[in-house]
Amino acid sequence: MSKLDKKACLILNLLQQDCRMSFTDIAEKVGLSVDSVKKRISKMKQDGIFYPKVQLRPRHFGFPNLMDVRIKLHNYTSEELNDFVEYLRDEPKVAEAFSLSGEWDFALVMLSKDADDLVLMSNKIRDKFSKIINTWSSSLTTRAWKFEDYDMLKLMGYDQEE
Q: Is 38 in contact with 5 (CB distance < 8 Å)?
């Protein structure tokens, strides 16, 4: 893990607000040279602190239903687990798949156009892996108030008044 100083945190906060902000604008706002900002951003990308990507909003292109799924597995071989993970990776309507520790083994975020699509997709996965899926719990996400939004100054323990 890289130690992030206050300037790096400020740069990351600015990029979260507007990922297309120019190096010049960032440099002015954080009190660094343009070259220094370029080097810092390149180093943070190289260190894996962030990576540039497009953040899609599924509800705006025909997938209004986001379903949060929790899954408990049982009696599986490593081959069955690998098949399950590979299936989740390849399924376009599974937007996110995480393995977990604790009560649940997996968490998924699935996209659907309507209730029928949700049922078909859920049944498809549950039927295909019925031998290893023990428990399936799902809920529909109705609204998001915060998503992938990090106040880097606060998160890293910097006093904003310093």
A: no
User: How far apart (Å, rounded) are the C-alpha atoms in residues 27 and 34?
Assistant: 5
What are the DSSP E strand ranges found in 32-119?
65-73, 94-99, 106-112
Edge-to-edge strand list for the sheet holding 94-99:
94-99, 106-112, 65-73, 133-141
Q: Provide the pLDDT confidence category of residue 146 given band limits of 50, 70 and 90.
A: confident
Residue found under tokens 């900002």: 37
- The topology under which CATH files domain 58-141 is Alpha-Beta Plaits (3.30.70)
What is the pTM assigned to this prediction? 0.74
Q: Where do you find CATH 1.10.10.10 in the chain? A: 6-54
Say what percent of the chain tops pLDDT 70: 97
Topology, domain 6-54: Arc Repressor Mutant, subunit A (1.10.10)
Query: Up-side HSE of residue 116: CA atoms within 13 Å toward CB?
Result: 0
Neighbours of 92 (CB within 10 A): 6
Q: Which residues face 96 on adjacent strands?
A: 109
